[in-house]
Amino acid sequence: MKNTKILSLGLLYLVFASLAYANPIDFSKEINWMQNPAAKYCEDLGYDYVIVSTPQGELGLCRFNEADNATDLDFLTGKAKTQYSYCARKGFETKTIQNQSICHHPFTSECAVCVMPDGREKEVTALLSQDLRTQ
């Protein structure tokens, strides 16, 4: 009985070892399990996302043109440069709210919503994602 367990464990080890050898994981490729939602929002809208060094550390910026930019998080949450937002592109008002049932960003409890013509509020990245899926 003991020999059978040892033999079974040995065979199991060999199977897993051969699978790892046959299909090695390439860790040199970027694995992006948790992308920065502010960077994604900026880039999905076609703007340039840049990281700059400041005395306080690195800061992500969404660059709209040569002269105009905003911090990534302020732009994502509707606190800055709303004229460049997805809501503005669609002709909706942009509003910043704090509502955990609507805002699902890992870095902040606030988010931007588009105020629809009928008064309903929809989270901006959810609307943008829906729009991108239909294209």
Q: Mind explaining what this structure looks like?
A:
- The protein has 135 residues and is an alpha+beta fold.
- It has one domain (37-134).
- It is 36% helix and 24% strand.
- Strands 1-2-3 form a three-stranded antiparallel beta sheet. A three-stranded antiparallel beta sheet has the order 4-5-6.
- Strand 2 and strand 3 form a beta hairpin.
- The longest helix has 21 residues, at 2-22.
- The protein is extended and about 75 Å long.
- Residues 23-29 have low confidence and may be disordered.
Keywords:
135 residues; alpha+beta; 3-stranded antiparallel sheet; 5 helices; 6 strands; extended
How are the SSEs placed, and which strands pair?
Blueprint lengths: L1 H21 L14 H8 L3 E7 L2 E7 L5 E3 H5 L9 H4 L3 E6 L11 E6 L5 E3 H11 L1
Antiparallel strand pairs: 1-2, 2-3, 4-5, 5-6
Concise structural overview:
This protein has 5 helices and 6 strands. It has 135 residues and is an alpha+beta fold.
For the record, the count of structural domains works out to: 1
Distance between the termini: 61 Å
Structural class: alpha+beta
Number of strands: 6
**Low-confidence blocks of residues:** 23-29
- Helical fraction equals 25-40%
Oligomer: single chain
Largest beta-sheet characterization: 3 strands, antiparallel
The rounded Rg comes to 23 Å
List the secondary-structure elements in sequence, H or E. HHEEEHHEEEH
How would the global form be characterised? extended
Proportion of strand residues: 15-25%
The average pLDDT is 82
Tally of alpha and pi helices: 5
